[in-house]
Amino acid sequence: MTRIAVLGAGKIGEALLAGLLAAGRTPDELVFTERHPERAAELTARHGVAAVDVPTAAERSDIVVVAVKPQDIVPVLAELAPALREGTLVVSLCAGLPTSLFEGALPAGTPVVRVMPNTPMLVGEAMSAISPGTHATEDQLAAVEKLLASVGRVVRVPESQQDAVTALSGSGPAYFFFLVEAMIDAGILLGLPRAVAADLIVQSAFGAARMLRESNDHPVILREAVTSPAGTTIAAIRELEKHGVRAALIAAIEAARDRSVELGRAAARP
Predict the structure, then answer these.
(1) What is the mean pLDDT, run by run of 10 residues, along the chain of 270 residues?
(2) Which pLDDT score, from 0 to 100, does residue 226 have?
(3) Among 60, 104, 115, 154, which is least packed, fewest CB within 10 Å?
(4) Boundaries of each Pyrroline-5-carboxylate reductase dimerisation domain copy (predicted)?
């Protein structure tokens, strides 16, 4: 039986616990850490998983998943390092933090796998990108793939691409939510009740996403199928291009990538 510890039970940490339980893991195979006692008690009541401290989590587990905020990583690693058993696999879900940061703070030879998930993990539809550190084996990488497959899709990338992944899919759901928010406001401006506008847009977004996944057609092909000559859609597309929406999205994603790089550098400073 592989025991798994999740350090940090925020939204992503809880979503992973829930996904693992839904995939057939039992509560006695899992533990978690949470610095707020009220939150810890709430999660134990909801999922039946024990809350423990960091050293206990390390001593009991074969896989330790670190799901804390990047700015909280230094004290967590300081607690984790003395208690970590030889061969324990460490999986980082911390945005922007390189595997070298973990390898430098943990016992020599510790296998580390870096993961960039996203919040659709909450509904079992995460997109997670994984990269091995210096000491992670193929079997360990496959174990992380299997673990994350319980909450969505998984892709392997070189670690050099993780900052771009963070900007694109890690932050990506927020861009879609922002767009949906703007479209709902447009519906209200055009005279629709908010609830009706929301239903129209959310279902349209859901359907469009399924078409993208299931058709395997390029987005341009799907967009052109909606864009009739001299019709309503091309009039809207012209306005989007006029206002530089495409360029703004590209610039925004570049900014997110740069911030991911900055977080990694800041955490590496003594």
Answers:
(1) 90 91 92 94 96 94 94 93 95 94 96 95 93 96 94 96 96 96 98 98 96 95 96 97 97 96 81
(2) 96
(3) 104
(4) 159-263
Euclidean distance between CA atoms 143 and 137, whole angstroms: 10
> Does a structural domain hold residue 267?
no
Q: In sequence order, what are the residues at sequence separation of 6 or more whose Cβ sits closer than 8 angstroms to the Cβ of residue 64?
A: 4, 5, 7, 57, 58, 80, 84, 88, 89, 90, 91
Same domain, 149 and 182: no
**What pLDDT does residue 264 have?**
85
> Domain of 61?
4-158
> Sheet holding 152-156: strands in order across?
50-51, 30-33, 4-7, 63-66, 89-92, 112-116, 126-132, 152-156
Q: Which of 142, 118, 147 has its CA nearest to residue 132?
A: 142
pLDDT for the residue numbered 88: 96
**Is the separation of the CB atoms in 29 and 22 below 8 Å?**
no
Give me the pLDDT at residue 155, please: 98
Tokens standing for 121?
Answer: 């993990």
Domain CATH for 202: 1.10.3730.10
The predicted structure's pLDDT at residue 270:
64
Same domain for 16 and 140? yes
Q: Are residues 32 and 95 in the same domain?
A: yes
Helix 219-226 to helix 194-215 angle, to the nearest 10 degrees?
A: 130
> Do 12 and 91 touch, CB atoms closer than 8 A?
no
Please state the φ and ψ torsions of residue 135, each to the nearest 5 degrees.
-105, 0
